[in-house]
Amino acid sequence: MAASTLTEVARLAGVSPATASRVLNGSARKPGPGVSERVRQAAEALGYIPNAQAQALAKSSSGLVGLIVHDIADPYFSAIARGVQEVAREQHKMVLLATTGGTPADEKEAVAAFAARRADAIVIAGSRSRRPEDDKGNAELAAELDRYCRNGGHVGVVGQAIVGAGALDGYHLVEVPNEELAAELAGNLAAGHSGEFVIIGGPEGLITSDDRIRGFQSGLAAAGRPAAEVLRASFNRAGGYQAGLELARRIREARASGASQEGKRPGLCIFAANDVMAIGAAAALRSEGFRIPRDALIAGFDDIETLRDFRPGLSTVRLPLEEIGRLATLSTVGTETADRGDGHDDGGRTVTGQVTLRRSTEWAP
Amino acid sequence: MAASTLTEVARLAGVSPATASRVLNGSARKPGPGVSERVRQAAEALGYIPNAQAQALAKSSSGLVGLIVHDIADPYFSAIARGVQEVAREQHKMVLLATTGGTPADEKEAVAAFAARRADAIVIAGSRSRRPEDDKGNAELAAELDRYCRNGGHVGVVGQAIVGAGALDGYHLVEVPNEELAAELAGNLAAGHSGEFVIIGGPEGLITSDDRIRGFQSGLAAAGRPAAEVLRASFNRAGGYQAGLELARRIREARASGASQEGKRPGLCIFAANDVMAIGAAAALRSEGFRIPRDALIAGFDDIETLRDFRPGLSTVRLPLEEIGRLATLSTVGTETADRGDGHDDGGRTVTGQVTLRRSTEWAP
DNA sequence: TGTGATCGGGAAAGCGCATTCCCACTGCAA
DNA sequence: TTGCAGTGGGAATGCGCTTTCCCGATCACA
């Protein structure tokens, strides 16, 4: 990766490196038009490309924003990534990508790598974990992020605060009201469904999943319904599928014992803690010969764009994922320029979602 | 982003910066155990994080791989991105992301930005364009990439070669046999469908789309069928939807004039140049009251993972997208180490896909 | 015409690190 | 004891760029 340098350009143009630097980037001082033209031509002739590393070193600002996600191929994250990317582009920054599978230890590695590259900001998306086995990783992640913040970095956090992080400014939380929205969804579903509810969630300790489950339960409670049983599986399509198989088994057993009530009574209403799990569960039920919503109702969470054409339309909670990515990124760069200007930044923003009922939860006797 | 420096660590440990550098990174020379321990402790105490920018500058290798896609939220690209990310991780590199919407001019910008950051490799995915209005952008993109290659960079190209690029080594093409696979798909469909075919493609000049269309047509021809009409729309879900509406209109008209042959004769068989277009078209048809495969058959291309649970199952051509991303990245870093070792690198690899027939093209009278 | 202000340009000092020399010291054989 | 290779460490240079600081020249104004 050798390329021509500023010095070479300067020499060719017959000026000093200082002058060349001044014309070839937005410096405050503008050299005379004659000189500028010469320099520009020399740069063009040599195919000069400024070395961003050197620039970053010299003015200690890298123009990088780091993005940490569990899995970039998961539509939830890729939608957020799009938002991040957009803002980065507007701000003339580049985004550095790291995928971690949700492991705090890996997330810590990613933060360290971003810090090493002196990223101007870090956006971290994906549910935090509260599982005991992640305690150590969480502590290290928090320490790494705290250090990054103390060194002047800004981190945009999507969803819920970092477990164990200090109350530094530098953290900007984009809050997603998972619990409230799940409660609202539960209320809506309870209004139209008199049968039993069951929840498919991620592993216990995954905060996003737990929040949604808790919200859903409280929504049921508010509607005077008993708490739903919770099935745990991995927080992705495979987990949903697995749980779906289990539910298919149960439905079959229930029917076998409870005589032939098929189609007479509303069946199970399943709430999956995210859309891809819901789709997985639906696929499992279908593969076992059940139909939705005839044999079971099902709802998800997120309203993933690619899944909107799914039939029957999946009831879910629409989350403005791209906007979330945008906000998380903006909150970091915004305060960078308007640093503690008026009063002070609230340190983040809250987005809102929207319960979206579709055919997957319409029970027609 | 101020942080403690190597010099500070060295001072605290009572050694020279040179020694500190030697112990804190994998240098050839290993300082004595006592000194090493002191330095390591000092680094720990200060929370030292090496400045990757400075390191890159000093040893001129950035540990960065640039990835250029049209849209990271498109599942086609996010699947590829996952593969790229995996390899990057294995190689201890970080990936820099750029999204361009497929505009060559923007792609050129991205390449320049990557070159400025001295990325060790660039992976560029997404159909090349041959549209006249992109001529200028293409030329510039090719020039920029050529320059990057000449400076020692490696670029992994997914799909088809860069329009107008020089025959430099430095380019590594991962070839996707779009044409052959589309032909094969057409052959399979023609065997089971006696009715008319129609193609929904991207804008003319989008090479991936054009290749698939051409392949499909030649497959039809090989099966003794007349060429299919081609509808052009944007190469995404919206385009597919729009084309789907148009087709719905035609089907309705044909039925109105051709008496009530509904359900008696096989209807239209639609080939969409990619899966998301197919899904869009299916949604449009459905919204117009038609059912698939009863009223129209439909097939796509790519076999997007998120869309596999779609009902009726979408006939398509499975492409190993993640593997494609992996290969494209490997081809760039592989030759970096084993640079022109044995004989010489073929400069790329070819992947293969698999025609996958599902219910969306099963016509049951 | 003289004087301070302004402007256009260059010299030089880093930014944080890797690395090449170079030196002092040790251990060993002669 | 001298000579020499080997070893562990430091001084210094440079990666490519930005940014003070400085200096000569030009300008406006008295």
Can you walk me through this structure?
The structure is a homodimer of 365-residue chains. By secondary structure, chain A is of the alpha/beta class. Chain A folds into three domains: 6-58, 434 Repressor (Amino-terminal Domain); 63-175, Response regulator (Rossmann fold, 3-Layer(aba) Sandwich), CATH 3.40.50.2300; 178-318 and 353-361, Rossmann fold (3-Layer(aba) Sandwich), CATH 3.40.50.2300. Chain A has twelve helices and twelve strands. Chain A has a six-stranded parallel sheet, with helices on both faces. A four-stranded parallel sheet of chain A has the order 7-6-8-9, sandwiched between helices. Chain A has a two-stranded antiparallel ribbon with strand order 10-12. In chain A, helix 5 runs parallel beside helix 12 and helix 6 runs parallel beside helix 7 (135-150). The radius of gyration of chain A is 26 Å and the shape is elongated. The N and C termini of chain A lie far apart (69 Å). Mean pLDDT of chain A is 89; it is low at 335-347. Chains A and B meet through helix 4, helix 5, strand 2, helix 6 and helix 11 of A and helix 4, helix 5, strand 2, helix 6 and helix 11 of B. The structure holds a DNA duplex (30 and 30 nucleotides).
Q: In summary, what is this structure?
A:
Chain A is α/β, with parallel strands linked by helices and 365 residues long.
Largest sheet of chain A: 6 strands, parallel
Strand content of chain A: 5-15%
Helical coverage of chain A, percent range:
40-55%
The CATH topology of the largest domain in chain A turns out to be Rossmann fold
Mean pLDDT over all positions of chain A? 89
**Most extensive interface, residues per chain?**
A-B, 60 and 60 residues
Query: What class would the helix/strand composition of chain A place it in?
Result: alpha/beta
Query: So what's the CATH class of the largest domain in chain A?
Result: Alpha Beta
Number of helices of chain A: 12
Measured on Cα atoms, how large is the radius of gyration of chain A?
26 Å
What kind of assembly state do the chains in view correspond to? homodimer
